[in-house]
Design brief:
Helix content: 25-40%
Number of helices: 5
Mean pLDDT: 89
CATH class: Alpha Beta
Oligomer: single chain
Shape: globular
Number of strands: 7
Order of helices and strands: HEHEEHEEHEEH
CATH topology: CBS-domain
Structural class: alpha+beta
Distance between the termini: 19 Å
């Protein structure tokens, strides 16, 4: 099975200059828990933020909701291709200790996010992820 068959289609990204509040609002509107951070006009993925990042790195530390995403994003997120095999991606997530990978196409454009919950249960068991 390929990543494109199980990923969550993701065409919404944020800029490093956007605020924590605008990212949280966008997550609520689009019902996602993670957003790739993309350089506007360039299309390069430079980071990723999660709803947990906003809570732990901004709110819990008493920072303003106007804090720029660049201040708390995970830099250089792990990527995979939409044509990658889910078994390979599950093994990579296990090796890296991450729960999500940004999915790109052959042109390196974001097309989605694959998370551990998207990977079929039998693949997770085979990879020791459950």
């Amino acid at each position: 099975m390929l990543v494109k068959d199980v990923m969550s289609a993701q065409i919404v990204t944020v800029s490093p200059n956007d605020t924590a509040q605008s990212a949280a609002r966008l997550m609520a509107e689009t019902e996602v828990g993670a957003l790739p951070v993309e350089v506007p006009g360039v299309g390069a993925i430079v980071g990723i933020i999660t709803d947990r990042d906003i809570v732990v790195s901004v709110l819990a530390r008493g920072h303003s909701t106007s804090t720029a995403i660049a201040e708390f994003m995970t830099v250089s997120p792990e990527l995979c291709n939409e044509k990658d095999d889910t078994e390979t991606v599950a093994a990579r997530m296990r090796e890296l200790g991450v729960r999500r990978l940004v999915v790109v196409n052959d042109d390196r454009r974001v097309v989605g996010i694959v998370s551990l919950v998207d990977v079929p249960a039998e693949t997770q068991r085979a990879e020791g992820l459950q």
